[in-house]
Amino acid sequence: DQQVKQNSPSLSVQEGRISILNCDYTNSMFDYFLWYKKYPAEGPTFLISISSIKDKNEDGRFTVFLNKSAKHLSLHIVPSQPGDSAVYFCAASSVGSARQLTFGSGTQLTVLP
Amino acid sequence: DAGITQSPRHKVTETGTPVTLRCHQTENHRYMYWYRQDPGHGLRLIHYSYGVKDTDKGEVSDGYSVSRSKTEDFLLTLESATSSQTSVYFCAIRGPATEAFFGQGTRLTVV
């Protein structure tokens, strides 16, 4: 049973437009959510996070929205750039168990020039 | 970049042989994790450590063991490698903050 789901394996967006990546979770104990970006042959790199006490967190072109009642979060990238093309993983953690991360299966974002 | 190094970066081994992957950190972080990445599954936790000699199982721990005799090193051992353990393995570290930082990965092929 996947506790964190990314239902879109891929997404293509035109350069300069908004990219919206979605993530759903089922475990109500999750209280911290993160987005990681991964290029081929590299490790995932931390992008942005949000605590369950917030519903929005912004960092430059990246904004994460959390809807706790729907158990849904999304990552918005505005404007999208070709260098943003990568696999994006949503992850969640809860207090305890060393705050291990539970990951979604990833979404391949392609930003077209 | 977080000071985290994985070795080897690539390895091909035969079924039934033992394999050890090493994760080394220079950050003195308490928490260390081993994940594997497979198509369609994202990253799945194998084992983690919350201190020297303190380890616990993750979601996909069968066939794997770990050891942490020093803060800086976390070893992942496949006692008898199988083809289902062909994967990309990532080590991660975490300090007081909630985000974890990942190594470059080890691509393991079991033939």
Give me the Rg of chain A, rounded: 13 Å
Work out the radius of gyration of chain B. Answer: 13 Å
Structural class of chain A: mainly beta
Number of β-strand runs of chain A: 11
**What low-confidence regions of chain B span 5 or more consecutive residues with pLDDT below 50?**
none
Order of helices and strands of chain A: EEEEEEEEEEE
Quaternary form: heterodimer
List the helices and strands and how they pair.
The complex is a heterodimer of chains A (113) and B (111).
Chain A: E1 4-5, E2 10-14, E3 19-25, E4 32-38, E5 45-51, E6 56-59, E7 62-67, E8 72-77, E9 86-93, E10 102-103, E11 107-112
Parallel strand pairs in A: 2-11
Antiparallel strand pairs in A: 1-3, 3-8, 4-5, 4-9, 6-7, 7-8, 9-10, 9-11
Chain B: E1 4-7, E2 10-13, E3 19-25, E4 31-38, E5 42-51, E6 54-57, E7 64-70, E8 73-78, E9 87-94, E10 101-102, E11 106-110
Parallel strand pairs in B: 2-11
Antiparallel strand pairs in B: 1-3, 3-8, 4-5, 4-9, 5-6, 7-8, 9-10, 9-11
Describe this protein's structure.
The complex is a heterodimer of chains A (113) and B (111). Helix content of chain A is 0%, strand content 53%. Chain A has 113 residues and is mostly beta strands. Chain A has strands spanning 4-5, 10-14, 19-25, 32-38, 45-51, 56-59, 62-67, 72-77, 86-93, 102-103, 107-112. Chain A has no helices and 11 strands. In chain A, β6 and β7 (62-67) form a beta hairpin. In chain A, the strands form 2 sheets. In chain A, strands 2, 4, 5, 9, 10 and 11 form a 6-stranded mixed sheet that branches. Chain A has a 5-stranded antiparallel sheet with strand order 1-3-8-7-6, with no helix packed on it. Chain A is globular and about 45 Å long. Chain B is mainly beta and 111 residues long. Chain B has strands at residues 4-7, 10-13, 19-25, 31-38, 42-51, 54-57, 64-70, 73-78, 87-94, 101-102, 106-110. In chain B, strands 2, 4, 5, 6, 9, 10 and 11 form a 7-stranded mixed sheet that branches. The N and C termini of chain B lie far apart (33 Å). At the A-B interface, β4, β5, β9 and β10 of A face β4, β5, β9 and β10 of B.
